[in-house]
Automatic annotation (TrEMBL):
Source organism of the structure: Kutzneria kofuensis
InterPro entries: DHFR-like_dom_sf, RibDG_C
SUPFAM superfamilies registered for this protein in UniProt: Dihydrofolate reductase-like (SSF53597)
Signal peptide: none
Protein name: Dihydrofolate reductase
């Protein structure tokens, strides 16, 4: 059985929306897009690189997959993250996408997210990682399908925006398996479901 890890960049007040760019995700009138890059440093790069050095496949919701296509699929910048993402098998969960041909090595999982991901998880194969895709993470968390979380907790509050766990999330306990603090005050915490 495969394991699923979710990596989420989150503010102190739980916001996960619009990390990278002002125009990344303005749903609901969110005006704080692009809050994350100023906190990047060598420590964060090294820790994220460790995660990407593990063999595995990627799992996306439709919206994040489409956003990542623009950012990563056509890049020739020599960034090791670019090479990893383009080479990895990418599963995209969607009820509305007609196909997953827009990004190499992508496979469409059509239908209900919990059912299709549970089926994929039960098959032999590489572990799965989710970067972003908060709606997918919420659904999979509620179904008990996410095994570990890597949370990059940023030292700011935003006051508005989509939060990691909005609404009812089931009681779930986690064990802290490791943590690192970056030079810019981001706490990178690794949690495993108990």
């Amino acid at each position: 059985m495969r394991s699923i890890n979710s990596t989420m960049f989150v503010s102190l007040d739980g916001v996960v929306q619009g990390l990278g760019r002002p125009d990344e995700d303005t749903r609901g009138g969110f005006a704080h897009g692009g809050w994350g890059p100023r906190y990047n440093d060598e420590v964060m790069g090294r820790e994220l690189g460790r995660g990407m050095a593990k063999s595995g496949d990627m799992l996306f919701g439709r919206r994040t997959w489409e956003d990542f296509i623009a950012a990563w699929s056509r890049s020739t910048d020599g960034n090791p993250f670019t090479a990893h993402m383009n080479a990895a098998t990418k599963y995209v969960v969607s009820r509305t996408l007609p196909d997953a041909d827009a990004w190499q090595n992508s496979i469409l999982l059509r239908g209900d997210a919990v059912e299709t991901v549970a089926s994929l998880k039960a098959q032999p194969g590489n572990d799965l990682s989710i970067n972003g895709s908060v709606s997918l993470v919420r659904s999979l968390h509620a179904a008990g399908l996410i095994d570990t979380y890597t949370l990059l907790i940023h030292p700011l509050t935003l006051g508005s925006g989509a939060r990691l766990f909005e609404g009812a999330a089931p009681l779930t306990e986690f064990e802290l398996t490791g943590s690192v603090t970056t030079t810019k005050g981001v706490i990178i915490a690794h949690y495993a479901r108990r």
